[in-house]
Structures are given as structure tokens and as C-alpha cells.
Amino acid sequence: MTVPDDASPPARDLTVPVGPALDVAGCEREFRRNGLPLLVEGHSLDRDVFGRSAPFLLVVLLAELTGAVRSGWPAWANVLALLGGAGIVAAAYAGLNVLRGRRWSTLPQSVGLPELAFFVLVPALLPLVFGGQWADALLTVVGNLVLLGAVRVVVGYGILSSLWWGLARVVDELGASLLRLVRLLPLLLVFSLVLFYNAEVWQVFDRTHGVADVVLGAFFALLVVVFVALRVPGEAREALAATATALPEHERATRFTRPQRANLAAMIATSQLLQVLVVSLGMGLFFMALGTLTVTPEVMALWDVDGGTWERTISLAGGGVVGGADLVVTQTLLRVSVAIATFTGLYYAISVQVDAVYREEFVDGIQAQLADVVRTRSRYLDLLAQPG
């Protein structure tokens, strides 16, 4: 018997049933564990998004009671202000219940528009009542609105569940990322090493302010997200179509609505961004170690680089000297390493988007996961259709 030259492990048979029989609640837990909460029938914002986030929102609300505190007041006055702020919040909530025809002490059964408006507006009253701080009040309103938007995206699209699923497979993802990195290694190393051993790059990051570093990092992170987001809708449609072809008996379960397809795309994007993060962190640590060993204080002096506002000396073998020179970690080394890691992450994100081998491997993995979800959803829909 002959073996093909390019023999590879056979693809997983998507038609093989997996997993035990689940009830409705078990199926819904599986959807959430896979980062697809929108597959739950009757999914709603007040119950499944903001309702599930209510403990977190309550903690934030309690933390915002500090809006009544003023740095120039004595301790006893701030204590009274905190108590007064808590009283204002409690009275406002009791009034909200009365206006809605409920008993004043009724706890929220769901978190709808009235509760969200309460969360956004009532904490902003505290800076106004205790000190007339209009700017702080406006900042509180804007901050709460941004926080609710983040909760809507993170919880509504199961981002945390997707990250948990990805972290549970971090060893596999790391191995796959390193294998893909090896294929890209020649060009990637040339690209990175040329930048790393460039005196002008060190001089730039030696003289930039912290705010510029944050803005630059956020800009490149945004570019990575954009490059990934451009491809994931097509990948979601491709995975659904392939799963429907492989599982014709579950074709009904592959009919995703537009929000459900967006949820699937968000799950795929989260998995890809996790891989980019793994590669970027690995490259950042590599260049930190490389710079510590090779970019000595003497080299930085030749490059006219001060090293930033802090530095740490590493002592090895108790002598503090390696080859006649101390190993020094500086702020500039950290900045350059983070910058190179960010550039590398962007390069990796772009490269894998056009790498045919990577696309095939990644889509196969998504299809295997999606096949399990589709079988679970098929049973879920059957259970919901049963009378009683």
C-alpha cells in the first residue's frame, strides 16, 4: 500500500454525533459557553444582557457614591456626604418604583430602559448636590453610557465566553500560532530586527511621552481589529454554508438570523484576535530579552539614547556582571519592545488574512466547533417545539 507524499491527518467527520442529550437549559448553557448567546430563543437585552450584568452594574453604582466625596472636606464631612449620597440613590430608586406602580421596595426583576436611565443619571446628581460640579456630573453620565455600550457588546455577543473558550484551548492556539509564525518567520524577523537595531527608532521612543505611546498602541490595535473584522462576516457565512452541507439533517438549525450571524462573526473575530495577541506577547518578550542582552548602556550612549526615566539592573550568578557589563532594563527598551511587538502583531494579522493554508486550517476548526453547536441547536429547537 502506498502513502501519499502530502499525507495529513483526516479532517474531522462533522456528521458524527457528539455529546450527551441535553435539556433546554443545558442547550442554552452550551450556546453561551461557545460564545453564541444570541442562539437562545427569546434573547432580550433586559434579561440576557443587562439583567445578567446587574451585579456588576450594582458594584459600579456603589463605587460611584464616591462622587459625593470632596478632597478639601474633613473626614467626618465626607462620611456624611457618602451617607447622604446613598440616601439620594435609595430615595430615587424608591421614587422610580412608585412612578411605575410598584411597591417602593421592589427589587428589579429585569434591567430595562427605566433602570438603565436610573444607572446613568442618578449617580451624576451626587457631584451636583455635593459641590455643584457640573463637569464631574457630565463625565459620570458619559462614562456610564460608555460602560453600558461596552456591556451591550461584551455580554450581548458573548465576548467573554469566546475568550474563555479560546483560553481553554490556549496551548493548541499557541502551537498553531507558532507554526504559522514559523512559516512567516523569515520576512517577519527581517522586518522586526531591522526596526529593533535602528538607532533612530530608539531615539524616537526615548523622547516620546507616555500619552504618545498609548495613542500609537491604540492606533495599531485598531488597525488589527479592522483587518480582522473585514474578513469575519465572510468566514461566518462560509462556515455556516459548509456546516449545512455536511449536516443536511440539521439544516433548520443552520438558519441563523442576522444578529445570530453577527454573534458568530464576533466569536470568530475574538478567536483570531486572541491568536494575534499570543504572537505579539511572544515577540515582545523575545525583544525584551534580546535588548537586555545586546543593547547595553554603552550601545545606547553611542545611539544618544538616555534610557528613559527609570532603569533596572539585573544581577546574574551573584556577580552582577555578564561579559564585563551589567544587564540593564530601561524604559526605552520596554517602549521599543512593545512597539515592535505591536508592529509584528499588525504584520501577522495582515499576513494570515491572505495566507491560504491558515485560512483552511482556521475555517476547519471553526466548522468543527460550529457542527457541535448546530447539533445542540437542532435538539434545542425540537425541545422547544414539544407541547408542554
UniProtKB/TrEMBL annotation:
The keyword Transmembrane helix applies. It comes from the Bacteria. The chain crosses the membrane at residues 79-99, 111-131, 137-160, 181-199, 211-230, 264-290, 332-350. Keywords: Membrane, Transmembrane, Transmembrane helix. The keyword Transmembrane helix applies. This is Integral membrane protein. The lineage of its organism: Bacteria, Bacillati, Actinomycetota, Actinomycetes, Micrococcales.
